[in-house]
Each structure stands twice: as C-alpha cells, then as structure tokens.
C-alpha cells in the first residue's frame, strides 16, 4: 500500500474547552481504530529509523507503527512493550515534539508522524483487550533495592526483575508513580491508567514497600547490611523552590507541588466525597511558565477560579512549557502576564489579597542561552488575587545526601553520576531521573532507570564470575 502523503497529522478528538473546564476528565480523547490506521500509513518505514534515535528508551517505532497500519494491534503492543514499560503514560505526556517526532522525516515537509498518539492508542487498546500475562522468570536470588517509585525507579525495577533479580521498591508515599500520580493532573493523565500500567510493569514479582522513606525509615548503608547488592536512587526533585519575597507565608499561597498533590493524589477535586479539601480564590496567580505552571493554572480553573493568571518573567517565546499545554491553557481562558515578576504578596488579616509585580525586559543571554530578564525601574503595579501558586521548580530533598556518606552531589543537591552507567561515587549505588538532572521529563527518567538496570546487571555479573 502506498504511504498516506497527507502533510498533516490526523487530528486527535478533544473535549471542547468550555465543556472540559467544568470537569477533570481527559482532554484528548484518543484515536479511533480507523484514525490510528490512517495516521500509521503516514509512516515511510525509513530503513535508518531516525525517530528511534530520539527516544531515550529506544521504542521500535517503525516496527510497531507498521503493525498498526496492518491492523495487528496485539503484535504492535508486544513490540511497544518490549522497550517501554509505560506506553500509555509516554504516549500522553512525552514531549514528542522534542524527542522522537522532531527527528521524523515527515516533519521536513509537513507534520511528523504522530508517534505519541499512536503509542497511546496501542497501549490503551492493549489494556482493554489483552489479558494480563504473568511471565515466568527464573529468579537469581540477588536482592536489589530501589529508592523511589517514580518513572526512573519503576523502569529500573521492571528491567531488573525481567533479568531475574529480586527487586524491592521503597516508596515514601502511599502510592507508586511519583509525579505521574501526584503531579500531572487527571485531565492529562488518568490515574486509573497509571495504576494499571504500573501494575503491568511490576508484574514480575517486584516487591513494594510503601510509606518507607530512605534516609529516615532506613538508610542506604543499612540496605547493604540487609543483603541488597545494589541500590538505585530515583527520588526525584520534589522539594519546591520559593520566590523569597515578602508575604510568601500568607494563607492562600501554595507551592504547586502541594496544590497538585492535594488535588491529584488526594482527590481534592472530589471533596467532600474524598476527605482532602483545597481552598481556591476567585482570582488566582500562578508564578512560573513551565508544564507545572500550566497544570496548576488549568487545575485552578477547573476548581472554579474565575480569573487565572500565569505570571512569567520572560516573554511568550521563552515559555518552557510544551506548546500543546500552552495552547490548551489559552483555549481554557488562562490569562498570560508576560515580562512580569512578583516582588511581594499583599495580605490582609493573614490571607492573600493581591500581588505586587514589576515589569521586566529581556537583556543579554544568560548561561542557559535564554535572554536574562531585567527589572524595568519604577514599573511596580498591584493586582488583586486571593490565591498564589508558586511553580518555579524544585530540587532534591536533602535527606538522601545527608544520610549517605560518600555520595557526591552538586551544589544544587543533584547526585553526581557517570552518565554512561548512572553509577554514583559510592560503590554499588546508582541514581537517575530528576534527582540527577533536576526537573526534566518522564522519558528521560525512564531512560536513566533502564541504563542503570543494565549497568547494575553488568557489574553484578562481573562480581559473580
Ligand atoms: P519522581 O516522579 O519525582 O518520583 C520520585 C519518587 O520518589 C516519588 O514517588 C517520591 O515520593 C519518592 N521519594 C522521594 N524521596 C524518597 C525517599 N527518601 N525514600 C523513598 N521514596 C522517595 N514530564 C514529562 O515528560 N511530560 C510532562 O507533561 C510533565 N509534566 C509535569 C507536570 C508536573 C506538575 C510535574 C511536577 C512534572 C512534570 N513532568 C513532566 C516532569 C516529570 O514528571 C519528571 O521529570 C519525572 O516524573 C521524574 O521522574 P523521577 O522518577 O526521577 O522522579
Ligand atoms: Fe516518543 Fe516517548 Fe514513545 Fe519514545 S516513549 S517513542 S520519546 S513518545
Ligand atoms: Fe516513520 Fe517518521 Fe520514523 Fe520514518 S522517521 S520510520 S516516517 S516515524
């Protein structure tokens, strides 16, 4: 069959903006089988597979897409799952536009193949239609500990379990998934799917110890004393950064981390059916311009805020959030205040009443290559809000580095690793994901978990020989 040369991706059906701001259901509805087949036939089946280079876990992209085009979804799913243990997650939240799709040759004269949408379609189909199988794996009895059950830890655990290791994940919270569960909102990533996909990924006898904080409940050195032969640290970068301005301690100021955790993991959107409430004003200012800021703003809107502002100190071109998230936020009526930085949170009787901001202009590029925002003198102005959500990034919790002697870390708290193996300065300890890179992406964390698993295997095999 000749390829479909339509320069545009098959559009994905979505809930209309006016409808979706009243609910927490998923925004993008996914392809139908016909739409998936039509999109799959846009793939040219390139022999040199440039798209695969862009995927940190090396999904066999042309191979799985070929099976979609042929209508063999069971085989497509098998191919996908051989490299990616969380395809329904990645199909939804991967920044495909800067990973696999940016290298797709179809992108040279039109839009790239919608690799993420097809991945999501196949993963969702498999969840509904294929029985969950428990693979028979011969165990080797070697114990490995994983600290943190986010994408990095889950991937490392899944890979090692597949190789026969006796793997235990120690997770501080009462649910696995890390940011997939407590950060990314339900309307972008339904938690039912995350839980199901995690259960599949760990369906190889991985043990799970929830509510265990490594560094507090048990230290890394104690894990070795308990017989673990290697430890992988994937504890993320969930300690929120603050603006350090006057008024930041007022009632009504949240870190995005706390706000989203309350809403997503503790289901505050379903209060009083669920016990966790979250108070939100009529007017909300979200400080920051990344994915986290977009998620917090769109969540605030769904909780009933009438005016939601994104306050960002650079311009629209510099917004670090994914284009798709910015587009969705605009459609939902989020108001962007660019080149604006808060200098004070204004209070009354202990509660937020507004923020004082200054206008900024862009100066010379800084070390990140982006133009540095500079304050315009005398440009101070106030605007009224009742809630402020701070979404300006995070760093790793210091607990691990404070309780693990011999572990080299960066000034900002990230763990130093050898990038080829994810090995740290401490014998037998590996690390990956946001705790190494700072806030990054799900797929980079998964890639790091996979790389570490293979390096752990190689090191332990050498030891045994
Ligand atoms: P995490 O996901 O943070 O997981 C770390 C886990 O370790 C958590 O479960 C935590 O509870 C646990 N933990 C922490 N300390 C300890 C301890 N001492 N002992 C035991 N367990 C511990 N990326 C994308 O690719 N696309 C997106 O659309 C996107 N949107 C995002 C939206 C939000 C709101 C946020 C916050 C992030 C978003 N990201 C997105 C980034 C992405 O989620 C992260 O890069 C990724 O989750 C990092 O994975 P990780 O496994 O390193 O850490
Ligand atoms: Fe692309 Fe992410 Fe899928 Fe890899 S996992 S093919 S980067 S969407
Ligand atoms: Fe298909 Fe694009 Fe990959 Fe080529 S680069 S195989 S067209 S997805």
What does this structure look like?
The chain is of the alpha/beta class and 465 residues long. The protein is built from 17 helices and 16 strands. The strands form four sheets. Strands 3-2-1-4-16 form a five-stranded parallel beta sheet. It has a five-stranded parallel beta sheet with strand order 6-14-7-8-9. Strand 1, helix 8 and strand 2 (166-170) form a beta-alpha-beta unit. The longest helix has 23 residues, at 442-464. The radius of gyration is 23 Å and the shape is globular. The termini are far apart. The model has no long low-confidence stretch (mean pLDDT 94). One iron/sulfur cluster binds next to helix 3 and helix 4.
Integer average pLDDT: 94
Question: If you compute it from the alpha carbons, what radius of gyration comes out, rounded to the nearest whole angstrom?
Answer: 23 Å
Derived from helix and strand composition plus strand pairing, the structural class reads: alpha/beta
Enumerate the strands of the largest sheet in spatial order, edge to edge or round the barrel.
Answer: 3-2-1-4-16
Helical percent range?
25-40%
Number of DSSP strands?
16
Structural shape: globular
Bound molecules: flavin-adenine dinucleotide, iron/sulfur cluster
Strand content: 15-25%
From the N-terminal CA to the C-terminal CA, the straight-line distance is: 52 Å
Biggest sheet features: 5 strands, parallel
State the low-pLDDT regions, or none: none
Number of helices: 17
